Amino acid sequence: MTSTPRSDERQTSVEQAGLTPILRVAGLCKRYGRAHVLQDVTFDVPAGSVVALLGANGAGKTTTLKCILGVIPFEGAVDVAGISVRAHGKDARRRIGYVPQSPALSEGDTCDQALTFFAEIKGVAKARVSELLELVNLAPQRATKIGHLSGGMRQRLALAAALLADPPLLLLDEPAASLDIESRRDLQQLVGRLRDEGKTVILSTHFLDHLDEVANRALILHEGRIAFDGSLDELARRARSNRYVVNLNGNAPAALFEALSSAGIGPERVQKAELGWEEILLASTQERERDTRPTREERT
Amino acid sequence: MKIVAAVARKELRDAVNSSWLLMYAALFTVLALGLSYLGERNLGSVGFENFSRTTASVLNLCLLLAPLAALSLGAGAIAGERDRGALTYLLAQPLDRWELLAGKFAGLSASIGLATVAGFGAAGVVIAFYATSLDVGTYLLLVVLVLALVCVMTGLGLVASVISATRVQALGLALLIWFVAVFVFDLLLIGMVSATSLGGGGLMLALLANPVEIVRVLAIIHLEPDLQILGPFGSYLMERVGTGGATAILSVALAAWIVVPVALAAWLFEVREA
User: Fold this and answer.
1) CA distance linking residue B145 with residue B139, whole number of Å
2) Considering the entire predicted model, what is its pTM?
3) What whole-number distance in Å separates Cα of residue A121 and Cα of residue B107?
4) Which terminus has fewer CB within 10 Å in chain A: N or C?
5) Cβ separation B7–A94 shorter than 8 A
6) What number is the ipTM of this complex?
């Protein structure tokens, strides 16, 4: 439960740029028994940015969010708006709005009752409940029981609960996982609006289409470590730099270039690949695996 | 305290919405009404001083059912939230763990308490109608004692809930506690007394180790201090320290039984991973 001095002393890119981070994570480690779920995860997030937290299942995305919330013990340091999550968890959580993948709200409660409960816990005036129901387009469902709401409506209700205290930082843990295309697009638009209003958002997601429309930074976790931390443009540039699309007509790859050469096809016929975001993510994690795989000499 | 009150109100609302509590309230009310009606009618017709004996029957029913309901609901409080993935969501809110636990304790105790009072109230009306003599004060004291037992058992249920990985495991543990406290404990101790010549101090500790026995003896002392009804532990206590002393010792022990399990559950909840 102690932070490593090396990680705490490390200056992140945000600090180097002279920006005040709303979230600072330094040397974050988490173990379950002998399994290392997170290892030396260090990053910070300046106010007003939208960070896409990416990675395969089991990469450590949800565990990272749980550590930021202070709901599980961890090693390292996590500060939210300068407040240590470990020392002052309750105060830090006042500055965080959290939307889980499947918000486990009481089915027997109405939307109004559920939001009123969260408003009471957060010390927010009851009037705010109506405002938030309007914001997420659930005002007509005010008296509807949660058990009768669709997945998209529940997700919007959870977002309303997260926004009740007007927190500067929002953690969205795969909020679109159980949504249909239309609901997913609505959610994306809402996140865009929140970004425009100056909220800082960390969005853990598997859905990468239109990600560049809301997020301005990507943080890729792979096997509990940061595999990439930078802008989406940089991520795309890296992944696309040495990748090409070659349309084969049945020849074996070994004979490909010989066949192309004898057919008189030059390099001008080779096109740069247009990869989607999912392919980019896959390429990045594969690249990371290649980099960390031991060589034959290391193995022996 | 606002957070504790908010969690308690929510717990009360959830309990009212759940079929468990309604079933308990209905069963308890029907049985209490039946017992009081039959008891008063039969005993009254043969001219017995029937208030005490009928009330004692209702009390025995309480000592059987109220702990079961409180332990079951307490056991589901944390483990149930964990099972349905709601615990992380609750802990992600700006609250301390002890506030969540205290709120759940208060809300559950209040909901089971209300259901118990409803049953007691119905039985009380029947008893008042038939009884040749009526001691409202004693009857209310019994209600308070049963409510205290509800608080004890809710706290023990919370301990089971916090240390269990799943709701089913927590319920199993709660049922074991209920079975031991209500059925096994007396038999076990009577066996020990004869086998190991348990002394006076041992008898006293044995009585204080079971909150159900504490409530039973406290109730009977005020209802009908008959040494035969009190059993070996209660009789010993009465002979040694008298009614006042016994009431004081047992009341302090009962208060400790309310506080200690809740405090233990709160501590365990704090140190264990969600």
Assistant:
1) 10
2) 0.81
3) 15
4) C
5) no
6) 0.82
